[in-house]
Every structure is written in C-alpha cells, then in structure tokens.
Write a structure and sequence with these properties.
Helix Hairpins, BirA Bifunctional Protein, domain 2, 13 helices, RNA-binding
RNA sequence: CGGGAGAUGUCAGAGCGGUUGAAUGUGCCGGUCUUGAAAACCGGUGAGGGUAACACCUCCGGGGGUUCGAAUCCCCCUCUCCCGGCCA
C-alpha cells in the first residue's frame, strides 16, 4: 500500500512517479481528496466521542451525590445519535479509501526506466556465452518426448491443460535441482524454511495478491483459502503483524514450494511445453531488512540467483524492468533471463524485486528502532523457477543424438 | 468430527459493569552503587491515529448485542490447549 501521507504531502512528485506505472492522476487526486475528507470527518467524530466519554464519567459522581441522572442520559442519547451518524460516514469513507489505496501499485524507484512493456526493459549485462551447436538444437518439449522425460498428455488427463508429468531423468533432475538450489542459498546465508502451500486472505492481502489479482489465484472452494502463487506469500507473511527486534534484521530466507497460478489472461502464450504451467516448482528467496539495507540485500539476491545459473553453466542476462512491466508491488525489479538455444531466445527464469515498504505497510511488518516502530523493507526473488531451469539444462546440454549431459555441480545430487 | 478449558502488554499473569489502556512479576532501556560485572535500589517502557508538542480518539482474538457506561454480561465466528474418535 502506498504511503497516504506521502501522497498528501507531495502529491505532484508521487503522481509523477506513479505515472511511470500507468496510474491515472484522477485516481490519485480522488485518493488524496478522500484522505483529507476522512481526516476532517474523523476529527468531528472523535470530538463527539470525547464529549461522550466526558459525560459518562459524571454518572458515578451524580450517583454519589444522589442527583438525578435522567437529564444526563438524555444528553448522552443525543450525542450517541450524532456519533452513530458520523461513524457511518467515517466507515463509508474508510471503505472507499481502502478500495482505492489497496489497488494502487507501488511507487517505482527513480532508476526504473520509463516504458510500456518488456520491449522497453534495459539489459544490464550478459553472463556466459551461449554454446555453438554443430546441429540444430531442439526445443525442450521435443527432447522430452524422445527421452520420455515429460508426459504432457497425461498431465492434462489428470488435471487440465497446462499440467504435465515429469518422468525418469526429468523427475530426478527436478528433485536434484531443488536440493542443489536450497543448499546453494543456505551457503550464502539464507535460512531454509518450509511453509504451507495454502494461505488465507490476510496473507494474500499482505503481499498484494489481493484484492486486485483474485482471478490469478486458485481458491479453495467453501473456504477463505488460496493456493500460493509463489513462496513469497507465505515467507513474507511469516512476519505479518509483528514488530521485530532491531537485531533480528536482516532476515534472509530461502524455501522451496510448488506454485499455483491460473494464468488468466495468458491464453495462447507458451501453450507448448513446460514454460507456463498452472503448477510449478520454485525455490524462492525472501528478505526482510531495515530500509537502509534493502539495496544492498537486493544486489546480494540478484547475485545469488545469477551465480546459481553460472554454476549450472547456463548463459543468461540481467534485465532491469521498465515501469510498465514492473509488478504491482515492486519498486524495482531485475529479471534474469536464461538462454534457450532451442527457442533461440532469452526467457525469464528469475525475478528479483524490492518492494520497499509497500508490502510491509500492508502486512504491518515493523521493527523497533529505539522507541520508534518503523516499517521494514521486503524483498523477494526466485532462485530459480525449477521447471524452467530443467528446460534450460535440457536445451543447453543436449547432444546431437538427443541425449542430455548433466551439469557437473548436479552430479552429487543425482 | 465429538466433549471440556481458554484467548489480556516481550513473556507470565490479575482484572466487583464506572478515572483500568489495564495490578503484579518478568524482559528491555536509562540512572545510582561498583575497578568492572552481578545483586540491590530509583525511573522509563503496548499498538494505531492525531498534534509543532500536548490534548484528544480507537484498540484487551474477530464481529454483533445489552447498558448512560463493557476487558468485564449475552450471541456468533476464529484460533489455541486438554480428552476421545479418525488418519498420513
């Protein structure tokens, strides 16, 4: 959630920044107006409440002195009536404000490039050079079918389209990758955490999936529960509604979970193969830091994901997302795109974001600095999407005869 | 799923329906004492909003209700613990 006070105090500046993310100025103006009106209305209400409290305190005194309380009661009834009236207005304003406020995306950092979509993202650097093939490299689904590694048809039979089944080498490789990634991250100081794959509404609200993106989530019928779209949700919400101690920070976590996404709105995209599934495995990094350390931790997380790809021998590049391509909660995002020789393209395999205090404000994650409570910064990043890593290994390590060699670092995990 | 108990500040734990936002202990911070520390003693210490700072308002799991007034009474929900059933 954006800082309403900041919006009120420096409207032009905030509006300018949010324009980068495509937010309409009318909405911001309305938000600001509501905020001011609500403040006035609250003052009115609180004034009456103060009167009520004042009068109520007279009762014991009157009784002691044996005075009649009937007129006092009358007076209070009148005040109460007015309170009820003003309260209703406050409630309505609050609801209205909440709807607006919860649907405004995060303010992008200054360094975020202007742009509308992924075309305008800015490449930061390339790591490792793609291998030269002396044959035409195949796409992963073709390799998978020949090796009997991935069963797309039966995945669909079991659930629906965009589900698949891993078999043989793919199944083993998937498991090896998860273990390798977790170990790798742990060595870099991220503590391993294993969390639920199902969370409640409050958690989804805390990280920003709700209320705006309900249609992307799988919801459990008859329950206010959802399948997580990323481990970012449970990992970040671990500390929802908590005030952390100064010396607990930073908290660096890594965890493996399955992720579930409806992929609404991506009909027709990546329908072939395993790039875009309703269920996929991901090893995630989540950090909770003091504001002054979040940039440093952000770099560390990007480096961690990039080094992971490097040790796996996978060529990739780092891309800074432009304003238009930035996710709802992110102030800044760097995507890691892995080289897929079969497609002849770099494809997203990891995304590291700093949400600054956006999620912290929603989820009320604070820490104590001296006597004051301050909002933390939260960061998240994939380290890496496991299925896509599997694909990348298949395509990059394929041999002329259709077999696949295994990256050196994974051998001890198989 | 059935039976019982409970949900209060960092934690533990009080709280006849009325100056109780909350006793007491503990933890933490500051001070006195000490070469230093411990002990002892003194002071401070919940959250959110609001304010220049006060004032003031809200919050005792969540939501309703009774009352002039509710942490305290009533109803619903959620969660936790104990007992039983079922089960990886």
């Amino acid at each position: 959630m954006l800082d309403l006070k900041l919006l009120q105090n420096s409207f032009d500046e905030v509006a300018k920044k949010l324009r980068k993310k495509g937010v309409k100025e009318e909405i911001l103006a309305e938000l600001k107006r509501l905020f001011v009106v609500l403040k006035e209305q609250r003052a009115k209400l609180e004034n009456l409440q103060a009167q009520k409290n004042e009068k109520s305190k007279l009762f014991p005194l009157y009784k002691k002195e044996g005075k009649d309380v009937a007129s006092l009661k009358d007076e209070l009834d009148k005040i109460k009536e007015r309170i009820g009236f003003e309260q209703k207005i406050v409630d309505e304003l609050e609801d209205e404000l909440a709807i607006y406020a919860l649907n405004i995306p995060n303010i992008p950092d200054d360094e975020v490039p202007v742009g509308n979509d992924e075309e305008d993202n800015v490449e930061i650097k390339k790591v490792l050079t793609p291998r030269e093939f002396d044959f035409k490299p195949k796409e992963h689904w073709e390799l998978a079918e020949n090796l009997d590694w991935i069963d797309f048809k039966r995945g669909v039979k079991l659930a629906k389209s965009r589900f698949s089944v891993l078999k043989n080498g793919a199944a083993k490789l998937e498991r090896a990758l998860i273990n390798y990634m977790l170990d790798f991250n742990t060595k870099r100081g991220f503590k391993e955490v294993c969390v639920p794959y199902i969370v409640n509404k409050e958690s989804m609200k805390g990280t920003g999936q709700l209320p705006k993106f309900e249609e992307d989530l799988f919801k459990i019928e008859d329950e206010e529960l959802y399948l997580i779209p990323t481990a970012e949700v449970p990992l970040t919400n671990l500390y929802r509604d908590e005030i952390l101690k100064d010396d607990e920070l930073p908290i660096l976590m890594t965890g493996y979970t399955a992720c579930f996404r409806k992929e609404a709105g991506s009909a027709g995209r990546d329908t072939r193969g395993m790039i875009r599934q309703h269920q996929f495995d991901k090893v995630e990094l989540v950090s909770i830091t003091k504001p002054e350390h979040s940039d440093e931790v952000f770099d560390k997380m990007v480096e961690c994901a990039s080094d992971l790809l490097t040790t796996l021998g996978l060529p990739h590049r780092l891309v800074m997302l432009c304003g238009g391509d930035l996710g709802f909660g992110a102030a800044k995002t760097i995507d890691l795109e892995v080289w897929l020789p079969g497609q002849g393209k770099y494809r997203e395999i990891s995304s590291v974001s700093n949400t600054r205090d956006f999620q912290a404000r929603r989820a009320k994650i604070r820490y104590k600095e001296g006597k004051k409570n301050r909002l933390v910064h939260t960061l998240n990043g994939s380290s890496l999407a496991v299925g896509r890593t599997l694909i990348a290994i298949m395509e990059n390590y394929q041999q002329k005869d259709g077999t696949i060699t295994i990256p050196e670092v994974l051998k001890e995990y198989l």
